[in-house]
Specification:
- By secondary structure, the chain is of the alpha+beta class.
- The protein is built from one helix and two strands.
- The protein has a two-stranded antiparallel sheet.
- A hairpin with a 5-residue loop joins strand 1 (42-44) and strand 2.
- The radius of gyration is 24 Å and the shape is elongated.
- It comes from Trichoderma parareesei (Filamentous fungus).
Length: 68
Amino acid sequence: MQFSIMTVFALAAVAIAMPTAKHNTVAKRQIVSDAIPANAPAMTDANGNVIPFVAKDVYVHPVGSKAK
């Protein structure tokens, strides 16, 4: 009995969460100006542009000094 109640609850949750036909559209792809390959490390800048990630340009605080 307990399993049946949980099954009905799960099926009801799926039915409620299912999108309606008017909202069932495919998202458009973003146009990326830089041709950065998908397998290359990348990140976004403050403006949301995709830029390649270069680890040597990342600032690392020296180990012995204290942050202020």
